[in-house]
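Journal club side-thread
Mid-discussion, someone asked how the predicted structure for our own chain would compare to the paper's figures. Pasting it here so we can look after the session.
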Amino acid sequence: MRLTRIETFATPDIGFVRVTDDTGAEGWGQVSTYQSDITAQVLHRQIAPHVLGVAFEDADDLFDRAQEKEHKFPGSYIARAIGGVDTALWDLRGKVAGKPVAELLGGTAGPLRCYASSMKRDITPAQESERFRRLRGEHGFDAFKFRIGAECGRGQDEWEGRTEEIIPTIARAFAGDDVALLADANSCYAPDQAIHYGRMLQDHGIVHYEEPCPYWELEQTAEVTAALEIDVTGGEQDCWLPTWKRMFELKAVNVAQPDVLYVGGIGRMLRVARMAAEAGLPVTPHAANLGLVTLYTMHFLRAVPNAGPYLEFSIEEADYYPWQYGLYRNDPYQVTDGQVMVTEAPGWGVEISQDWLEKAEYRKSEVEG
């Protein structure tokens, strides 16, 4: 196979990628959200020159070579750019084969349990509790994640007393129900504080404690994990495979949470999943918006043997992520009885809205001649 053209359609919030191969087949992918217009520029400047016109059979090797060529620029933007081409290539392969990506990965189409993931800290514990109860009634969710502390808060709460209030409030709201509750600290605490709040969480029946310490401080997270019974989770920010290897060697987490577009695409996500499996750990990926990251994660979870018990599903509406509406011609995110469905449609099974594409910044790289 050879790629002959890579096109991007980007805004600062989100960017889509279309690849074309030497047979004329096409596939659609996405670079990571947040500063996506910058990632699109990185893609054309630093990835496209190394992958266009190159005959390959092993896409992982192709992208590894591209990263090696750009060895002076390791890190997030390179991984986010590679993820855009990688995910478009999986779509192309699926369309050519007439199969969903989940099947190409060794899985099947079908349903996935979701957890309703709240991004909000500007919400009172009572309001969050009421929102969760409403969503349980409307969509059948039986798992919910709420926020504690402040994002990268250096030990400070979003406002004084919020964490002490929200933990028992959410626990009481579902007392006696068969509901899983999860909490995310977003890198807030030093180890002593993290252990304190971790014990409070586990005493209230919370089952998942995400990113308790600054995510880059793996030894701190390992200290917290060793001290608690609750599952300590993390990894969403990590895009460097050696960091994942070290994370598992340190036994820093009980659950791995790679983000398919932060880590660099499906190929790299599978490598993280294999490392996690060797460490005896499940993978419950980060997928915190309704860009294509959630759809990619759906296909991934239908295929990997050490998939976690649920899919992260953002419950934020237009006031929080206004850009995530109007992206698709066919909405892939219908939640019924707390589940979403991976369809039998080829590739990712989604079409990008032409109206949206026409409003985005367009760039193209292609093989000359």
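Post-session note: The chain is about 40% helix and 15% strand.
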